[in-house]
Amino acid sequence: MTVAAATSVVQASGLTLRYGRTAALTDVSFTLYDGVTGLLGPNGAGKTTLLRIVATALPPDRGTLSVLGADPRTPAGRLAVRRRLGYLPQDPGFHPGFTAFEFVDYVAILKELTDRRARHQEVRRVLDAVGLAGQRGRRIRALSGGMRQRVALAAALVGDPDLLVLDEPTVGLDPEQRLRFREVIAELGEGRSVLLSTHQTEEVMALCQRVVVLDGGTVRFEGTPAELAAHARGRVWTSGARVRGALASWRAGDGRYRNVGDPPADAELLEPTVEDGYLLLIDGPADEETGLVHEETGPALGETGR
Amino acid sequence: MRRMSVRVLPLLVLPAARATPWTAFLAAAGVGLAIVAVPAAFRVELGVDDLVGLLRAAAVCGALGLAFLLDDPAARTIATVPAPRPIRYAARAGVIIPAAVAWWAVILAVTGAGAGAALPLGGVTVEAAALACVALAVGAVRLRSSDAGGIVAAPAVLVLVVAASRIPPDLALYVPPGDDRWAAAHDRWAVLLAAAVAVAVWAVREPTRRRPAITAGRR
Amino acid sequence: MTAALAERPTAPAPLPGDPRRAMLALARVEAVRLPRHPAVIAGLLLFAAPEIYRWLTGQANRFPVLQDEDWSTQFLALLVLGGGVLIAANLAALRADRHATTGLYDTLVLTPPWRTGAFLLAVLPFAVLVAALIAVRIALLALLPGAAGRPDPAELAVHPAVVLLFGAAGVLLARLVRTVIVAPLLLLAAAVAVYAAALPSLPGRVRWLLPVALEQPPMPVPVALASRPSGWHLAYVAGLIALVAMAALAAAGARGRRLVVAGAAALAVAAGAGAAQFRPVSDAVRDARVTAAERPAEMQGCRSIGAVTYCAFGDFRSWTGDWDTVVRGVLRGVPAEVAGRPLVVRQRVSTEDRMVDGQVVTAEEQVAAAAEWQRIEPGAVTVGTRWGDGRSEMALAGLVAYRVVSGEAAPAHIPVCGARGVLVAWLAGQATPETAAGLRAVDATSWGGVPFGDMRFPVGFSVPDREMAAASALLRRPPGEVAATVARSWAELTAAGTSADRAGDLLGVAVPPLPPVEERTRCDG
């Protein structure tokens, strides 16, 4: 197995894409390594657009991109990428009349797995892997939302791809299913590269070796979850009452208030989480160089309370 | 509550008109119009039989188009709003029926203008109405369990038409004008029309499994 | 459960293969799904069920003319088999759009042209199924003892070809328009066009530019006289299939020289074969038509059974025994010395349609046409190229009875009144159960009198309702008893001037009173 962070799987620089007058992505650059990378950002940040570009579904207007050593903007490069890619779209459609097996088999054919026996074996393997061994013959219209999501993941896994692009894979799942999903994804991350988008910071904590924060179509952060959390070091404190000037202030389970922002001098500081770092990054004033991991140039806080 | 719902009806008509997927209907209506208008434009001499045949083909077009008019991608989103399902469908019907009637009037006018002899317009209109209602009824029934009704209703109309033209003569639905069986066949068409309307009315009820006293939707 | 993922599969995962094989694998999956589509199942049922029902209930014609049966189901095949495939193929090709799986499929390896190719190929197995269905049908018909003629393979092949064409059209439509309504509308438009092109008022042979050429020939003709350009038409449809398939591939994004070359070749085939259909009828066929009309004996074989000689075109030779059954049935009702006179029954065809709308035929023209008809062979009784429907049996029985009763062979569609009318109708009705059924069927749908003989021939006659009522009463009695009575009064009954009332007296049946003057049939004959 390769050492994590040694091989770059995706290299993007200066990716820009506009939908008419709306800029979806502006000058996005990042590098993806083996292991699980989380793409974090608010709604409309451009996560899905970026994932679709990486997954060869959408060509960028500008910028260079290398996926698995190939350039997806040329037909040959796109084909090379697609042969080694698994993609789970945000809202995967299903053919309700197909059984789980038929659907994944159909995707496998479209991935050009032509040998019938080997393909069927592969389809059974991925359905087993996502825990649908017992549901292979059931029609998709009879499956629950969580099961459908697993069918879609199985479809992404067919052919043992080197790069998995998963767009909000755990949305709509109940906690138990989400845990199961995380388990699967974590295992996939061993020896492969997984890029997944999410709203949920705890998922990043639980799964990702690296995290990219996207906001307003630009990369605001790239690093490890610990680094993102460290971003908020010294800016999270606890108090007995709501702090008006804080960026966020909420009453936690223990009855005390947890505050993010500029602490007063005598504040009782807390260990920051990824969420705190993310909050500071997104809700803080978007001024100079916040996209980089230099802690000393963090956003100025305090006067921007709610 | 009920009075409130009825008062909401006129307000719903305009949004219903905007939410209706007109493309399919317009395409079908256009083909139907072309079927009757082309011979009329080229002044092809046609007998009553052939003109009635053209009207029947146009009626099938209309039914095919209507099959898609009840489709509503937002159906699931608005399934639980207070305005009951029948009211929402009534608003749709308030848009669809005038459009269909206006189209059929144009078809009859175009065909009738070129006809020398009197055409049995009443009978053909009953056939067209029956086909249209079958299309709407099948669509409405399908929409109880799915988002897309037309996909089933349109082929169902075609199957019905072909089947109707192949049934034994003593039960025939499509009989040539002037035939002795014309009146009896149109009684059967009227029965079909009534049955389709009944099914459609049943299909737009709120989908409840128990008695209507429990108003919660099934989903 | 998830341990399978931790290590990558020990056997290397199947490597993505070449697109051609993937296309075949996809076509295989789609080919299995296609016949399972409700529209296709409904089409198969609508195609086969009425025919099976007719056979099970004994309403089917056991004397099929194979050169007609081979193409007479083409329009139905277009409508229900082609239509079913059109809708099913269109929905299948639009499936990804309808179920919003394009987001996923867009990133998969196989490119849209190859996928479209798979949808096109998926129609092939169903077309083979249709071909088998058609082949089995015609084989079963050919096995019937009463089968006449031989089928044209090209006409038979048009059935699966139409299925292929409509399947390809469904795929093409899906690539051009994302709306599902277009396919049913195309089907409807095609059906209307084919039907309209068959109208006799439409000029020339426009109908041959449509996938199926619907014709309403006056009657079946021997194979040698057939003028349908079936081979060229099949080539034309094949060209159309290729053209539509290439268009679908191009619409899916396929480019390249090979596609252009194939498209050009398909266009050339379609245009060339399409034009070739309009070549004038060959001299051989034209000569055969003249011969069949003027000197039918040259194309016929004759067979004598007792005193009766039956002459049939080669294709129809198997029917002479059945003709004989009817003729024997008629002769059973007449005195033995009359029945023993020689008689010739000759099969005739008429390739001109005398039933064209608006053509007014005067009585003088009728008589002239009948005389011209009889000039070929005076005294021969005409039999047509249809059999097994009851009416044809009744027509032959009527003409034989008329010949025996009146001594003339070619009545020019005149009313036969008086005792002759009663006697002829009774003789025809009592001949066989088939003639009786045919007489009942015609009687039920005619007004004023019952016509005997095919209106497309210049020879035939009708028996007015009054005489028919007496004949019907006779038919309800035991035929042997009536025959004995008839034999006793044969001379008077067959005399031209004997009235119906007199016949009623002689035969002991009630004859209805004469209708009011304005409703009476004019009886000149």
Tell me the quaternary state. heterotrimer
Structural class by SSE content of chain B: mainly alpha
| Total count of strands of chain B | 0
Number of strands of chain C: 7
Uncertain parts of chain C: none
C-alpha-based Rg of chain C, rounded:
30 Å
Largest sheet of chain B: none
Which H/E pattern describes the elements of chain B?
Answer: HHHHHHH
**Estimated radius of gyration of chain B:** 19 Å
Mean pLDDT of chain B: 83
Number of H/I helices of chain C: 24
The structural class of chain C is alpha/beta
Distance from first to last alpha carbon of chain C: 98 Å
Low-confidence segments of chain B: 210-219
Number of domains of chain B: 1
Strand content of chain C: 5-15%
The biggest beta sheet of chain C, please? 4 strands, mixed
> CA-to-CA gap between the ends of chain B?
22 Å
Helix-strand blueprint:
The complex is a heterotrimer of chains A (306), B (219) and C (525).
Chain A: E1 8-19, E2 22-33, E3 35-40, H1 47-54, E4 62-67, H2 75-83, E5 85-88, H3 100-110, H4 116-129, H5 145-157, E6 163-167, H6 175-188, E7 193-198, H7 201-207, E8 210-215, E9 218-223, H8 225-230, E10 236-239, E11 248-251, E12 257-260, E13 268-269, H9 274-283
Parallel strand pairs in A: 3-7, 3-8, 5-6, 6-7
Antiparallel strand pairs in A: 1-2, 1-4, 8-9, 10-12, 10-13, 11-12
Chain B: H1 2-19, H2 22-41, H3 48-67, H4 85-114, H5 121-143, H6 150-164, H7 182-203
Helix pairs in contact in B: 1-4, 2-3, 2-4, 3-4, 3-5, 3-6, 5-6, 5-7
Chain C: H1 3-6, H2 19-33, H3 38-56, H4 66-72, H5 74-93, H6 95-98, H7 102-105, H8 112-121, H9 123-143, H10 153-176, H11 182-197, H12 230-251, H13 257-276, H14 283-294, E1 300-305, E2 308-313, H15 320-332, H16 336-339, E3 343-347, H17 363-375, E4 381-383, H18 391-406, E5 412-415, H19 418-430, H20 433-445, E6 449-452, E7 460-464, H21 465-475, H22 479-488, H23 490-494, H24 500-507
Parallel strand pairs in C: 2-3, 3-4, 5-7
Antiparallel strand pairs in C: 1-2, 6-7
Helix pairs in contact in C: 2-8, 3-5, 5-10, 5-11, 8-12, 9-10, 10-12, 12-13, 15-18, 18-19, 18-20, 19-21, 19-24
